[in-house]
Amino acid sequence: MRNLHASVAGREVLHGVDLEVRSGEVHIVMGPNGSGKSTLAHALMGRPGTTVTEGSITLDGVELVGMPSWQRARAGLFLALQQPIEVPGVSLEEVLTEAQPEDHSRVSVAERLREEAAAIGFDERFLSRALNVDLSGGERKRNEMVQLGVLRPPFCVLDEIDSGLDVDALGSVARRIESATVQWGLGVVAITHFSRLLVELRADTIHVLSAGRIVATGGPELAQELETTGYAGYAR
Amino acid sequence: MRKAEHLPTFTADIASALGGPDWLRERRLEGFEAFSKQDLPSEAEEVWRYSPIDSLDLESYRPSVVEDGLGPADQSLVDELVGQILERAALCIVRDGSIVSIERGDLPEGVTIEAARAEGSLQPSIGQVVEGGDALVRLNDAFAPDVLSVVVPVGTVVSRPIVVVHLCTAGGDPAPAAFPRTVVRAERGSECSVVEIVAPSGPGRSLVVPVAELLADEGSHLSFVSLQLLGDEAWYLGRIGARIERDAALRAFTVGLGGAYDRCRTDAAVVGQGATSELRSAYLGTGEQIHDVRTLQDHAAPRTDSDLLCKGAVAGSSRSVYSGLIRIRHGAVRSNAMQTNHNLVLDERAHADSVPNLEIEENDVRCSHASTVGPVDEDQLYYLESRGVAPDRAERLIVAGFFADIVAKAPVPAVVPLLQHEVAARLAATLDEVVPTGGEDHHG
Fold it and tell me: What pLDDT does B433 receive?
């Protein structure tokens, strides 16, 4: 993304964000409440109500700004939601089949679902349930990883994937992401408030988002610094 | 008020020409007398509010004259519908209220399924549970050519459903009017389920005014499913009355898919201590259809439970009305009553009215009602779209999901595949006419 400005309800929240993620890289964007983290996630995915007013988002050379969400997804972007919602009566298999209507791979969606569920410890019985219905917070996040594994997008955005997760669940989510970066070269933007994600998920680059701008970028050493000083040093 | 008298096509002569045993002919004449003294239903009445009943032109209909047997098209429709029901104990074919055939499968001994006018039949206990009969019930009293009577004797369990297919003739001027009448009695401690499918015979206008009476005697379990699939020029004015005695349970599910005007009024009275009723309704509006569901959960005894769930979706310029009353009568202490109505509005030209009512004469009771009217949830749409599902497909999945649960939990499991098929078929046709609200169609 280059010089990304985005507003919500007419108020600009992102004031020019630059970020480049290559295949196989993990970037963690950290920031305090109100820094624009969720707006960044939704600007990338094109959520209605989040408007990109300036700048561009390109994925493998394809401009995403102006595209509806579903076309961005088909172009290769995946968003793991902070709070995956319930969709009563709709199964995972239906959704993923509709998500890739041109996919005619020999391995069926149902088969891949079972493999992915096993890989992340998502109870196979949940596969036949309606999407996220009667699932705990941790199970919902695992469910997002199952979908990621079936769809195998080139890039994904994780919006507060660590919120509401116990250490075990966070660990298995992080392992899945890391293996995906190797398996198919998944490029990752993980957005979080807490540094505990850094403990679980090995990042190539860390960015600090504050008041709608990236104010610091560095390697894992930046995490150490944040651990001791907090965000206070970056407040504007 | 419009009086019901002096209609050239609904006369005492025509009623008495319908024939049958003496008691039935007398009953028709009494019904006709009552009908001709009554006002026709009016939108000014609460129970007809939001309905189009003022535009009912009875003079444009005549009581159907039943010809013998089914045509090849009728037979193949019956085969297609019945073929999707996983199992059955018996099959009755009824044409415009006249019983054409009764095929008893392996019914337990003592179970009665009979046409009231057939030789040797007993006089069924009709007229007991549809109280406060309005002019339309009286019209059914006067012009029902026969009565289908099901009686399950004390302690008998009929594990597979008794299937009734009502074929209703359409087309002609005046257009045919049919008055099917069904009575189901589950005697003490018995169990049975009845499925009624209302299907058209031919295209064109028709009026169908069925009355079904359900009697669940002490400790019995009675399940009832009604599926209405009439053509798009039909007026269907259905009435179900149920009386549930001590420790008995009724589970009823009405599904309205066809018709220009589809109305189903269900009055379920829990009259004995420990009685329960579970009422379910679903409707799907398309084109200019009107779906109209009225329910009464009538509690007349202590420790009675009732639970109603009604789900509907309206597309095109269709509209729907749900209006329901929970009545807890004096003495019905420690009763529980729930009433829930959810509506999806799929087009800005479509409209849904939801009117829950409570009338409570006791203190020590628990009642709740909830209702929602609105479009498909934006967050759900975004969620599916963020996976790469095109907006029109996402909406279709969500709407299908909205109905999936209520259909899957139908009180008669054997009929679930048929219900799923009919709902899915209507849904596909319905959503094809919805103008996509965004994005391009990738499935062209």
Answer: 59
Number of domains in chain B: 1
Answer whether residue B44 is part of any domain. yes
The DSSP call for residue B390 is -
Domains and CATH numbers, chain A: 2-234 (3.40.50.300)
pLDDT digits (tens, 9 = 90+) for B22-61: 999 999 999 999 999 999 999 999 999 999 999 999 999 9
Interface contact A95-B385, CB threshold 8 A: no
Q: Which of B378, B380, B389, B395 to mutate to test the interface with A (most CBs of A within 10 A)?
A: B389
Across the interface, of A47, A130, A151, the residue whose CB is closest to B387 is A151
Please report the sign of the dihedral spanned by the C-alpha atoms of residue A63, residue A64, residue A70, residue A75: positive
The residue in chain B having the minimum alpha-carbon distance to the alpha carbon of residue A92 is B384
The DSSP string of chain A is: -EEEEEEETTEEEEEEE-----TT-EEEEE--TTSSHHHHHHHHHT-TTEEEEEEE-EETTEE-TTS-HHHHHHHTEEEE-SSPPPEEEEEHHHHHHHH-TT---SS-HHHHHHHHHHHHT--GGGGGSEETTT--HHHHHHHHHHHHHHH--SEEEEESTTTT--HHHHHHHHHHHHHHHHHS--EEEEEES-THHHHHS--SEEEEEETTEEEEEESTHHHHHHHHHGGGGG--
Look up residue A42 and give its two tokens: 């939704």
Inter-chain residue contact B386 with A94, CB threshold 8 Å: no
- Complex-level ipTM: 0.95
Q: CA separation (Å) from A7 to A32, A49, A235, B77, B414?
A: 18, 8, 21, 57, 53
Both tokens of residue A43? 């600007």
Cross-chain residue pair B400–A89, CB shorter than 8 Å = yes
Terminal Cα-to-Cα distance of chain A (whole angstroms):
23
In a domain? residue B61: yes
Domain that holds residue B93: 12-378
Least confident of A50-59, A188-197, B103-112: A188-197
Chain A interface disruption, residue of B342, B387, B405, B437, most A CBs within 10 A? B387
**More confident: B361 or B125:** B361
| B333 part of a folded domain | yes
**Contact yes or no for B186/B220 (Cβ under 8 A):** yes
Domain assignment of residue B371, yes or no:
yes
Q: Do B400 and A130 touch (CB under 8 A)?
A: no
* CA dist., res. B328 & res. B323, Å (int): 17
